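Quarterly update from the structural biology core.
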Amino acid sequence: MLIVSLLLNIVVLVPVVTSLAARAPWIARAWGERTPARDILLAIYLAILTASIALLAVVATAGPSVAVEAAAVSLLAVQIAYKVLTAVMVQDALRNPVVLSNLGIAVVHAVTVATLVPGLLG
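Predicted structure, tokenized:
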């Protein structure tokens, strides 16, 4: 499941990050016009994308380890928290495609975390 979650992050974030950076028209419809807040979101997404690529590269080259799994659980737990919080914070959340995709991704990441945590706790 670790690889599934990391690949999901990469597959989702590459087009989102490139579209945010290029100011694609669909971005304004999904996240509003360009603002400092939207640029901060781009920075956050770049950080998550970079961490996901790095963790996947380590797993692919050296295999999973307690350190890599702990780092991944930390990354995924923060993502779960913010993705679920979007459903609480965004007006008409269940009509917003970004919120809905966030919730779906949060479910996948929660399954991954649930499979990894028992091994980390010993």
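The chain has a mean pLDDT of 95.
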